[in-house]
Design a protein that fits this description.
Elements (H helix, E strand, L loop, with lengths): L5 H8 L2 H31 L3 H38 L3 H36 L4 H16 L1 H16 L4 H23 L9 H24 L16 H32 L4 H37 L3 H28 L1 H5 L6 H14 L3 H17 L3 H23 L4 H24 L12 H9 L3
Helix pairs in contact: 2-7, 2-8, 2-10, 3-4, 3-5, 3-6, 3-9, 3-10, 3-14, 4-5, 4-6, 4-9, 5-8, 6-8, 7-8, 9-10, 9-15, 9-16, 10-11, 10-13, 10-14, 11-13, 11-14, 13-16, 14-16, 15-16
Length: about 475
């Protein structure tokens, strides 16, 4: 039997809380850095005016859908598969899964390009874009989605490394990328010397250059002897069982990811009923909610690796105990951010613009929804833990419940003569329902009882249980 790597042994035997914190610290840094990428870009685009900011707000839910699908959904499937393989001491499968992850990422990246390049204009118009804001949205969208493959492969490689319990390497690569973007993004947006001003498209091009450089760096590490799971191009053939191991978690996770972004996309469309300033205000305010995704992912990635490794080794109780410890950490962090934003909304909003309508709508959103961000953190951390467990039914149902409440409730609020504040109040209720649905199901035994997806996981766990 293959000996356990020290990183794998840490996930199985070390104290849970201190181990999660130690693993989460570099991962939180990487997620803050990755979130800073979007914030840096938004800051400079905001200098181009409200129409540019509104155009970016129209595209941003779709860009985040791609990033969350590649890093959180498919990335979760990759990390979960590798963690479970290492926990079960299947080292050769862990190596092979890295190449399989790249193949899947390439396929999804091409699909995003094929759909969004021709279909972007129709989509953004339906979300309320028109005139200059729609033109800005298309300029940004065409550049980003022409290079969608780079985003998908970068996040697949980072997920493969995190699945081994190594959070430091993706952190270093991503932080280095921020230092790259700080000068390159404004250089391409505003131009300098012989370099022409590309406007909002310059921000998109800078972003793609960041993903290109990062992909090369991550691939180089996975090819080195330092990686627990290594990228091999020879001696590895594609096998459906390994692809299925990634996809069965990744595809179901994608439903949850789509629901998160649809919820925000629907709210963007509802805010659009009150004009471009409301779109820009909601889009800028909700950036903070999007910022919580990578912050919670900072804890979620090591939790996913720990839960997946423990389940691969048959340690169910440790997997559940780690999950509830992670829930407490995520709630405290997300609620702290939400309360700060609710009390002091304008400093955040004024980073991106000073338009009166934008500031008013953004402040209204943060004061109404911010105090409920803790529930968003709970639902999100349980989503990552469920990826590690390979049981995704209840995170999907929780996200679907959030989408239904946000969309139907917001539509009814407007139909009954409600204001923008009523639309935002419905978003708060949707966050509470999202967390309660998932938490109550897992507490009731959804992972290891008769309820859960996929059911084949229960049979797998029975075989892994020590006699």
């Amino acid at each position: 039997m293959t000996a356990l790597d020290p990183r794998t042994r840490l996930l199985l035997e070390a104290p849970i809380a201190s181990s999660l914190l130690r693993l989460a610290l570099p991962n939180v840094l990487v997620m803050v850095a990755q979130a800073s990428v979007g914030l840096i870009e938004t800051y400079f685009v905001g200098k181009l005016g409200t129409d540019a900011l509104a155009g970016m707000a129209l595209v941003f839910p779709i860009v985040m859908l791609m990033q969350m699908s590649s890093a959180g959904a498919l990335g979760g499937g990759i990390a979960s598969a590798i963690a479970r393989a290492l926990g079960a001491r299947r080292r050769e499968d862990a190596d092979a899964l890295v190449l399989h992850a790249i193949v899947v990422a390439l396929a999804f990246g091409l699909v995003f390009s094929a759909v969004l390049l021709p279909g972007g204009a129709w989509l953004y118009a339906r979300m309320g874009g028109e005139g200059a804001s729609l033109a800005a949205a298309l300029s940004y969208s065409h550049c980003v989605f022409a290079g969608a493959v780079l985003v998908w492969v970068f996040n697949a490689l980072a997920a493969a490394i995190r699945g081994t319990g190594n959070m430091a390497v993706p952190a270093r690569v991503t932080v280095g990328g921020v230092f790259f973007l700080v000068p390159v993004s404004p250089l391409l947006i505003f131009g300098w010397g012989p370099i022409p001003a590309l406007g909002i498209a310059g921000g998109a091009i800078a972003l793609l250059l960041y993903y290109l450089v990062g992909t090369v760096a991550l691939a180089a590490y996975l090819r080195s002897k330092h990686s627990v799971a290594r990228l091999r191009f020879t001696g590895v053939r594609l096998h459906w069982p390994l692809l299925r191991d990634i996809l069965r978690v990744g595809l179901i996770s994608s439903i949850a990811t789509v629901c998160v972004n649809l919820s925000i996309g629907v709210a963007t469309a509802l805010a659009g009923q009150f004009g471009p300033g409301a779109i820009a205000g909601y889009g800028t305010g909700s950036r903070l909610e999007y910022l919580l995704v990578p912050l919670v992912f900072g804890f979620g990635a090591p939790l996913l690796a720990m839960v997946g490794t423990c389940i691969g080794a048959g340690q169910r109780e440790r997997a559940l105990r780690a999950t509830w410890i992670g829930v407490g950490m995520a709630f405290a962090m997300a609620e702290g951010v939400g309360l700060a934003a609710a009390l002091f909304p304008r400093p955040w909003l004024m980073l991106f613009g000073h338009d009166a309508a934008m500031l008013e709508a953004g402040a209204q959103y943060l004061r109404t929804v911010g105090p409920f961000y803790g529930f968003f953190g709970v639902g999100l951390i349980l989503y990552f833990a469920s990826q590690g467990a390979g049981r995704l039914l209840w995170p999907v149902l929780g996200n679907l419940a959030r989408l239904v409440v946000a969309a139907l409730g917001g539509w009814l609020a407007l139909r009954w003569g409600g204001t923008l504040m009523h639309v935002f109040a419905v978003q708060s209720l949707a966050l509470v329902i999202y967390a309660v649905v998932i938490a109550s199901a897992i507490a009731g035994g959804a992972w290891f009882g008769p309820v859960g997806w996929p059911r084949s996981t229960a049979r797998l766990l029975q075989r892994l249980e020590p006699s």
